[in-house]
Amino acid sequence: MDVDPVDFLHPCRCLNSQMTRRQESCSNTCINLTAVLISVIICLSGMYYYEIAGRNYLESWSKLHYDEPEYKAPDQRDSLADFRKEIQHLKEKIDQTDVWREHLEQLYTKIYHSQESTFQKKLNEALDVYDSDKIGLFDYAASYARGSVHSIPDTVPYPINKTLTFFNLVNINVLSNPENLLRPGNLPGSCFAFAGHRGRVRLKLGKRIMVRAVSVDHVRVHADRSSAPKEFEVYGLENPDSEDSGALLGTFRYDIEGRPVQTFPVDGHTGYEYVELRVLSNHGKKEFTCVYRFRVHDVFIKN
């Protein structure tokens, strides 16, 4: 059998081809494994880096300092003490308010009564002036003007028609009051009566004035008017306790047929706080003289 050498070359070529393919396959596998290994290493490196960097960031962020107010839980005992102090403070304020309110009420009441009293006083004075001072001149000798009787030298008050009786054992005759000269009113009998036809009355005026006029009153409705003063003088006094301190302001005559209230001008140049009425005579009554009222003015209006 003849063997051709070419027949032996074909199997060898096939075997060589298979070995070549196996080598290529192993090479590809190694390359792939190397690529996978590199990828794994890269992934692991990235994961490690990010884990370490993130941890450091969190630690640095947590170490940041903020100036936050420190909060302390309040102590119950301190809170209760503070609460009691506040209550005590409020109580003191309320007590002070009550005191002030009471004080204001008292002050208001005082002012109200004072104003009411002042108004009533002024009203009474106005009514007095209107009722009996219809001549339109203010009377500085009147009781409402704080005038008063200082003395009645050499003058004896006359008993009036009134008697005080004590257990029907003692009877006392009431003397006429010189203060009647200063009181508004002209009812019969409401006068100052003194014994005889001469009398003196020293008066203190409500204030020091320049005497410009004087007025004398007597009742008209009385049947017997002979007790009315007739001639009289008026003196200005510097010292009411001295006999020589007076200055004659004028001599006047009361007309019994004239008006009940007669006003006489005075030529005064000096102010006086004390004046004297000196009655020199009456209209015929021997037992007594009766003067209902004597007024002193700082202006003169002819009536």
From TrEMBL:
GO molecular function: protein-membrane adaptor activity
Keyword vocabulary terms for this entry: Membrane, Transmembrane, Transmembrane helix
Nuclease as UniProt keyword: no
Membrane-spanning intervals of the chain: 29-50
Top-level taxon of the source organism: Eukaryota
One GO CC term on file: meiotic nuclear membrane microtubule tethering complex
Gene3D superfamilies: Galactose-binding domain-like
Main location: membrane
Subcellular location: Membrane
A Pfam entry, by short name: Sad1_UNC
Residue ranges occupied by any SUN domain in the UniProt entry: 147-301
Protein name: SUN domain-containing protein
Biological source species: Phyllotreta striolata
Source species taxonomy: Eukaryota, Metazoa, Ecdysozoa, Arthropoda, Hexapoda
